[in-house]
Design brief:
Elements: E1 5-11, E2 14-17, E3 26-31, E4 38-44, E5 61-66, E6 69-81, E7 86-92, H1 96-99, E8 102-111, H2 112-122, E9 127-129, E10 135-145, H3 146-161, E11 165-170, E12 173-178, E13 183-188, E14 194-202, E15 209-214, E16 222-227, H4 229-235, E17 239-244, H5 250-264, E18 268-276, E19 286-291, E20 294-308, E21 312-320
Parallel strand pairs: 9-12, 13-19, 15-17
Antiparallel strand pairs: 1-2, 1-5, 3-4, 3-20, 4-7, 5-6, 6-7, 8-10, 11-12, 14-18, 15-16, 18-21, 19-20, 20-21
């Protein structure tokens, strides 16, 4: 049994503590762009004399606790017994229902919050949601996943307002929250909790110009061209194009253009770290990092992988944020 780890199996409405069957590490992870967090574990098992009773097709659920705190709750999607009398299992939290449901979606003048509520209601997912305020003029998708729609709605909201939102699973419900409110009072620092790190700066996705056009087949419909001349003098012209719904008010697409080019002109600064595990630090949240010869900065957590194997370690991929946090 792994130290400080508790694994509960919910089967046919009954809850069973199967912690004593944990014989390998537990991996708990998530990343930007994925709708759900994942948990994988290795259990003691026997094909002839099944110990756990896990059967992925029967709708078995798992709850994982570390030092008494619940970190994960989700549905088992796969079980794989082996000839070594062990079985690996993989489970996803409630966010999986966003990527595993397709439908036709049509919204006009709806906020991200309203779209999120409609989707959760449509697929019977418990939820809570922060108010996003901004009304997206139009969002239409056919045969799309609910997650694709929400990602587009979050992107449109950020482009218009500069506010980033995050969706995550908290026990049995999905939550929509403002991302900058997820900053946690943890600092990553060498000699304290940081084991190793690598800091990189890239302009691969940097753009110096943004061309905005009406959303029509006519290629000569440019309505706005935003430039960063000083940046172009250093790295040359790199242009992005953005389609705008026909009839969008001028003030609105001007504001959109300024917000978009401000984001596109920034280099991507990525910090990859290995550190002593802190369960609160997961994808979508923000954390502060202090590195040698670099001023302390706040970073978004884009990817995380926590490993429990008698100790708790984590690997993180962080991107610097300019938000006022």
């Amino acid at each position: 049994m792994l130290t400080d780890c508790t694994l509960l199996l919910i089967r046919s409405g009954q809850t069973y503590d199967i912690s004593q069957l944990l014989v390998g590490s537990v991996q708990w992870s998530g990343r930007k762009g994925a709708s759900a967090r994942t948990m994988t574990a290795t259990l003691l098992e026997s094909g002839k004399y099944p110990r756990s009773g896990i059967d992925a097709v029967q709708g078995n659920h798992l709850i994982f606790l570390y030092k008494g705190a619940e970190l994960f709750r989700g549905l088992i999607f796969s079980d794989a017994p082996s000839d070594k009398e062990t079985m690996s299992i993989k489970a996803f939290d409630n966010g999986v229902y966003l990527s595993n449901n397709r439908d036709t979606f049509c919204y006009k003048s709806k906020t991200l919050t309203q779209i999120f509520r409609d989707i959760c209601t449509r697929f019977e997912i418990p939820y809570s949601a922060a108010e996003s305020g901004y009304k997206i003029p139009s969002l239409k998708k056919s045969a799309a996943t609910a997650w694709d729609v929400l990602q587009e709605a979050m992107s449109a909201t950020f482009t218009a307002t500069g506010r980033r939102y995050w969706i995550y699973s908290e026990k049995d419900r999905l939550e929509l929250i403002l991302r900058r409110e997820t900053t946690i009072p943890w600092v990553l620092e060498p000699g304290v909790n940081l084991i190793s790190y690598n800091l990189s700066t890239s302009i691969e996705k940097t753009r110096t110009r943004l061309k905005m056009v009406w959303n029509t087949s006519d290629i000569d419909t440019t309505i706005l061209l935003e430039k960063r001349p000083e940046l172009e003098s250093r790295i040359g012209i790199m242009q992005e194009i953005e389609s705008v719904s026909k009839g969008t008010p001028r003030a609105q697409y001007l504001a959109l253009g300024k917000q978009k080019i401000a984001e596109l002109a920034k280099p991507v600064i990525t910090l990859s770290v290995e550190a002593i595990g802190i369960a609160d630090i997961i994808s979508g949240r923000c954390v502060h990092a202090i590195l040698p010869n670099i001023a302390g900065r706040t970073y978004y957590v884009d990817e995380d992988a926590h490993t429990f194997d008698g100790t708790h370690r984590m690997r993180l991929k962080l991107t610097r944020t300019e938000d006022e946090i």
